Amino acid sequence: MLCYSWNVNGIRSVARKDLLPWKVLPRADVICLQETKAQQHMLETSLGEPDGWHSHWHSAQKPGYSSVAIISRDAPDEVMHGIGDDTYDSEGRVIAARFGTLVVISAYFPNSRDGGARLDYKLAFCAQMESYLDHWRKRGFEVILQGDYNIAHNPIDLARPKENQKNAGYLPQERAWLTRFLALGYRDVFREKNPDLPGAYTWWTNWAGARGRNVGWRIDYSCVSPGLYDRVTEIRHCPEIMGSDHCPVAIEVR
Amino acid sequence: MLCYSWNVNGIRSVARKDLLPWKVLPRADVICLQETKAQQHMLETSLGEPDGWHSHWHSAQKPGYSSVAIISRDAPDEVMHGIGDDTYDSEGRVIAARFGTLVVISAYFPNSRDGGARLDYKLAFCAQMESYLDHWRKRGFEVILQGDYNIAHNPIDLARPKENQKNAGYLPQERAWLTRFLALGYRDVFREKNPDLPGAYTWWTNWAGARGRNVGWRIDYSCVSPGLYDRVTEIRHCPEIMGSDHCPVAIEVR
DNA sequence: CTTCTGAAG
DNA sequence: CTTCCGAAG
User: Fold this and answer.
1) D4 C1' to A81 CA distance, Å
2) Closest alpha carbon to C1' of C2, residue
């Protein structure tokens, strides 16, 4: 099963550019999208229910904000919208689809914002995410938590670690949460398979040609529950796929 | 003196397209602009004070709304911002520049809006405009009232008169005001010189290729005070000039 | 720098 | 359909 995650920064934006995920992501079985920036009822059918795919959306109450989706070739056996707490669910940040014993989650973690204005909210979301994953695992399922974590974990995960110590996405508290999360047994597949690979980023600011100069951050992850790690057959970034300020991440499990 | 009037629908928009008025309007002495949609302090100097020109702006309080300007090769002898009533002046709708005994006015009349929601405001603006013009004429000056009147006067002035009887810009009350205004002696120079010319429009909606099919309205005028009419040497529309949903209007007086 | 809404035209 | 704002990233 080949499973992509992509923060599209506006599904209508990539549609305008003729770079829709289900067109440009090769051999996809499942596509996790973040920041679709649309409530499903605002989308034309061609975007909201693409032909030949099963699609499930979880949108923010606020129009044009956040919102996630899972698009799959096969119908999921179960879909869960949100994380079970309206504080987060009103912002359309999480959707999950279960295929047999495998749960694929599309998550858009909060941005902690300038001055850490939303750091507390983000850390509370992260804590809630742990119990949410427990909920699935207690039922005997393995999980892939795919999405935009809005956290660069370690210095190797961004081009300018020193300059960003006080910036949203690289604050000590968010980095510490990710460390703790992995200590629970979840596996950051990309980094484990590429422990010393620098310059492997998934997001670049739009300013000043950052992507062309590869001045970026790795903030999009495919983390898997412990029992799933040995079933991973491939993990890669797709920086060649354009259309968003993020690039897709692909994971294949057997 | 060759004097243009152009509703640019955003001065920054035409700048992006490299179609700035002082670049694309040939042999201009004076350029009246409407809907510049910027407060002067929000503009780069190259837009707000173009090199080789004298520029005067009158902006709405609300950022990005309305706003007019007069750009001229020679420095005006006098500039007047607004019409003398803050009800209208807070919306940045009128600026005047006097060159000797000739007063050139750039005016952006209110849109009467769907259902005539703002018709009363517009008619009050029109009434105020009459006294404003009197003010200049009592001082012995001739006036050119150039700009976007947001009124198509007669059936010949729009492509679909029957379909638009109840639409903003062609309501009986606004048409009646323009009739009355001309009865005061002001001269609609374009129509007087081209009394039976159909299809001479200055605005086309952006929808459905209206400009390509010339489904438009004549809502931009150069009206002159009675004593000026015999000094007019040219009047024309410039539909070849792109960059806005309006085209420029040019008048030359001797 | 870019995406979006919502007001406005 | 397009402009602009302001929020957001």
Assistant:
1) 35
2) A206
Least Cα distance to A26 among A248, A253, A214 occurs for: A248
pLDDT for residue B217 is more than 90: yes
CATH of the domain at B78: 3.60.10.10
Residue B121 among the catalytic residues: no
Separation of alpha carbons B188 and B221, rounded Å: 7
Task: Print the domain residue range for B107.
Answer: 2-253
The whole-angstrom separation of Cα B136 and Cα B84 is 12
Could you say which of B4, B88, B132, B148 is catalytic? B148
**pLDDT over 90 at A174, yes or no:** yes
Burial annotation A208-240 (CB, 10 A radius, 16+ → b, else e)? eebbeeebbbbbbbbbbbeebbeebeebebbbe
Confirm whether any atom of chain D, the nucleic acid strand, is less than 7 Å from CB of A202. Answer: no
Angle at Cα A50 formed by Cα A49 and Cα A56, nearest 5°? 45
B162-184 pLDDT per residue, tens: 999 999 999 999 999 999 999 99
Query: How much is the pTM?
Result: 0.90
pLDDT in tens, B221-243: 999 999 999 999 999 999 999 99
Mean pLDDT, range B55-80, rounded to an integer: 97
- Looking at the structure of chain B, the number of domains it has is 1
Q: Phi, psi (5° rounding) for residue A81?
A: -95, 125
Bases along strand D below 7 A from a protein CB:
1-6, 8-9
Residue B73: pLDDT above 90?
yes
